[in-house]
Predict the structure.
Amino acid sequence: MDRFIARRLKRNARLGTCLATVFLLLAAGAHAAIPPHYAVTPIEGSSFQLPRGINDAGDVAGNDADGPFVWSRELGMTYLPVRPDGGGVARDINDLGQVVGTSWDSQGYEACMWDEQGQLTLLAGMEDVQADAIGINNASQVAGNASQVAGNTWYNEPFFWSAQTGPTYLGSFGGNYGYARAINDAGQVVGWSMTQQGSDHAFLWTHGALVDLGTFGRESWAGDINNWGWIAGGVETAPGQYHACVWTSDGRILDLSLPGDSSSWAGEINDSNEVVGSFRTPTGVSKPFIWTEAAGRVDLGDLVDPEIAVQFESYSYRALDINAAGQIIVNLEEPWSAPQLMVNSDNQLQGMPPAYLLTPLVAGDASEDGVVDIIDLTALAANWGNSPVGWRQGDFDGNGVIDVQDLAAVAANWTFAPAGGPIPEPTAMALLLCGGAALLRRRSAQVVRRESWSNIL
């Protein structure tokens, strides 16, 4: 009997070692580039949602037909208060939950902030100025724009604001129009300013100095700046030729346009230097994209499920913001342009939602529940070798067939944590199998030694 047990234990040990080795190899192989894939959540409210900003918690600030809002997947839509007989626009939200934008009534419009509890206040020192708050950082500093008249000349002046200093106007390149578009946590502001010759130049305002970022040719515009000093925006290289671009912190200017674009624009960038924006095709359709220096520019329609991809292909969508987790807000450029969009008597949008939250998924998560587990392995096994297939069937590398590369993704990201829990290190499952194999081998060796001693005695 002991010999039989020993043989079984040896065989189990070899099997465990084999499985552990396979999973180690698969997990290592899964580090090959697999395109990201996104779960898509509609941002549902009343008609014509326009999300404008997202914080790192995934809270989205914006507007719809019922007014300014904050939306999250967990709580849905929360509308922000406005002044009596007035309205408002929510434009950005920071990680503290503070929202900035514009509040108006019959007397005009003013830059405002909604605090963490949703209470509305006007920016101190700007109560008598027609102004709009555009961006807010995690130090509660604000960038925006104020309209003023001097003599017979109208000026639009970008400003920096903090509770300690009040408004600081940033100056201009000689023209009467400037526009602040974003602010980072260091208090650096980017946007564009008109020159004396009447052309727009992208600017960086830093340490009190207004810096001209230059152009590829004619004009330039800066849309966002991250905490590393990378700036996303666009340039006009020749009349009517608009190219998305990035100014890097080491002085490079990267052109993000591709052959076949009729135009492109890079509006936002996160601290991983992931850039989102949109490009327009020769047929006039605007399509959202994500760009990284490693992977280049990728059409977001190629990274979502087919039913969403069809919408991105048929109607003009644009990517409006991206947070540190890589979540992206996307909206229909002109909601009224889609014929299947209908508004019912309760002002509720029917048919295709005009705005979405895109959340990146870990490779191997076929069920899109935030965890790679037996459910995902079952989906992969059920569709092994089938073609054509998609992400939900287990095709994580996007090659149209389920194969060993997809199994490698499951092995690399396997977790025993509950749904929504943290994903462990990529080789966690393989290490567990190795540990099991080692224990089997040790137990086998003990049985063999016991048998040997019994023979000697």
Helices lie at 2-29, 306-314, 374-382, 404-413, 428-456. The first helix runs from residue 2 to 29. The chain has five helices and 30 strands. Confidence is low (pLDDT under 50) at residues 19-27, 338-345, 416-457.
